[in-house]
Amino acid sequence: MENYSKIMGIPVPKITMDYSVELLNNVIQQNKPELFHVVTLNPEITMSCQHDKQLRSIIDEAGLLTADGIGIVMVSRLKGNPLPERVTGCDLLIKLLETGNQNHWSFYLLGADEATSKKTSEVINRTYQNVSILGRHHGFFNELEEAKIVEDISSLRPDILVVALGAPYAERWIHKNKNKLNAKIAIGVGGSLDIIAGKVKRAPAIYRKLNIEWLFRLMNQPSRWRRQLILPRFAVRALLFKENKT
């Protein structure tokens, strides 16, 4: 049995949350010069990869893919090559903060609006007192500001660069700047800063356990219904997709 499950042609490693954190801990300890790009793969990115060759190459070059969303995991199970569990961007970020608190890791936060970015930094500093937030910047910047942000990150050399610019823009941004960032790890985390800051309420544990977090989000943010139409489309296309065995 392979150590990955193919989802619409993309090989997704069969790894748990704990193993993901262990792997990233090793990356930080090894202190290699090249950036390690983590992509939390969701149905939207997977669908976009079918017609966007540049995005697909970014995904193929990533250091680690995780299954972000129950849709990815359910398709793997229905196709008979199951992934062990979801490893979402938000959950992975929280686990990295917990581990970073034990190991005195440093972070840089990029994304969200200014108030949310500031509040997130305050919450992390209060909750994880051994973690260093070396710097932060909101996600609404122009090209001139972007150059300064990249320079700032490069000079600060964080262990982990957290990019909350939305998918797949975060993945493109990390890939475009990967040779200039001087971070050990970079990860796109979607709207995770909104959750940490308390701007968006996280689904209760029972919703997460039953894998219906999407339903809680839809009830609390009805405007998301158009975006969530991609989920049934993804499920049908992914289940009918003829995977190459090689």
TrEMBL record:
<keyword id="KW-0328">Glycosyltransferase</keyword>
<dbReference type="Pfam" id="PF03808">
    <property type="entry name" value="Glyco_tran_WecG"/>
</dbReference>
<keyword id="KW-0808">Transferase</keyword>
<dbReference type="GO" id="GO:0016758">
    <property type="term" value="F:hexosyltransferase activity"/>
</dbReference>
<dbReference type="InterPro" id="IPR004629">
    <property type="entry name" value="WecG_TagA_CpsF"/>
</dbReference>
<protein>
    <submittedName>
        <fullName>Acetylglucosaminyldiphosphoundecaprenol acetyl-beta-D-mannosaminyltransferase</fullName>
    </submittedName>
</protein>
